[in-house]
Amino acid sequence: MSILQLHKISMGYVTKKEATLALDSISLTVQDGEFVSVLGPSGCGKTTLLSIIAGLLSPTSGRITLGDQELNEKQARANIGYMLQQDYLFPWRTIEDNLTLGQKIRGHYSTESRRMAIDWLEKIGLGDKKDLFPNQLSGGMRQRVALVRMLATNPTLMLLDEPFSALDYQTKLKLEDLVFHTLKSEQKTAVLVTHDIGEAIAMSDRVILLSPRPGRIHRIFNIPSEIAISSPFQARAHPQFNEQFQQIWKEMENFEATT
Known about the structure:
GO terms for molecular function: ATP binding; ATP hydrolysis activity. By secondary structure, the chain is an alpha/beta fold. Helix content is 39%, strand content 25%. The strands form two sheets. It has a six-stranded mixed sheet, sandwiched between helices. A four-stranded antiparallel sheet has the order 2-1-4-5, covered by helices on one side.
């Protein structure tokens, strides 16, 4: 069953000097439980596309459906979680307060929902940190809290905007595995924006490669099932991983050669 459908999404910006087309007629279907990565050169509109799905930007043309609802409806937007490169935890609130803030804003806060959030915190190994403040945690810990904050609202669709790029490599690999296993165990649907080819291959069922601006779908890579079912750390050691990497790398090299 398809959960997310993009129908000819285009996005243009107009200034006093010029009009710029950032995205051009993006059409894509993401299936229930699928993990899709969006990859492309800098400035191709990856984050713009994610912001449109999240409802932070309105497309110039096109429409988006989540399940059977168009995403201009408030209820549909409430089913989306967003995890960013920075954790954006409120420094004056405890970890528990940060986790349950989304529940309170959406009017879903209860003893049961709080317990669910704390249970998630315990599952990722930070149950003893709930009364601390963000500045008392490392960057990797804060990103784990950001993951739980997203899960605490029980969204249908997860949007991940380069959530590991600010971390050191070892922490990045550990968090990739944590996010992968968490979302797969919960059968969540996810769209990841990244500039890291290896990360896209290691975490995804499919990789969507966008062309240079204006961003169009240049090619879709179906990741072999043997890689897709493996944890990101294990996927990088798979014999077919390098072949997939080289295919995508060559396509991106071609972009540079033609610009």
